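Example 3.2
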Amino acid sequence: MIEIKGAQLIYSSGAVALEAIDLTIKPGMLVFITGESGSGKTSLLKLMMGIEKPTQGKVYVDGSDMADLHGNALAKVRRKIGPVFQELKLLEGKTALENVIFGMRFYGMRLETIRKKSSEALAQVGLQIKADMPIETLSWGERQRVAIARAIARKPAYIIADEPTGSLDEANAIKILSLLAELQTPETAVIITTHATHLIKAMAPFNHVSLAGGRMIALSDEFHDGKQGETTKG
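Structure, written as tokens:
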């Protein structure tokens, strides 16, 4: 479970990125975080991943205080998170499969096991036939799928995608959002930021957090806890 309690984030420049954020994300949730550019969406994800530490308040991932974690302890918690970065961070000159394998390099597994898991992840996103193609020969939508495969190969408890549709046309954006939504399981939460609120209306039951100026301005009245249809007030 990710728990954010009274979190504030002020950057060294003095810019206030987030203010008074209270949010709980349980296993099995599908959460969309929406807001205009500069509303604090990416900053909120950085708190969840431990990339930034809150100036005030607390951020817990499965009970671990992210502000107290460093080095190996922080890396251990981050292994529970499968990130899909806005800029993708894929390696040119490498194949789709090699890019997924590269994301598994610190997991202490045998190379054969890593290769197997990476191949399975590419198959899950429908790119097994392009596993050996250089990443620069793939379309942007296909590269998005490689980035998602890299995130899910580790079987994370939390899949976090930052503006995954920003460079896609509407048809491909819906495909990517649908693919991410399908990765939700009773054990796996999927958290997606987007400014394209019109695209999420067709998704399965989800939880909606809206940000503006670094503050939460809306939280969905009903939080659908996983796929079982149970609903709790958020």
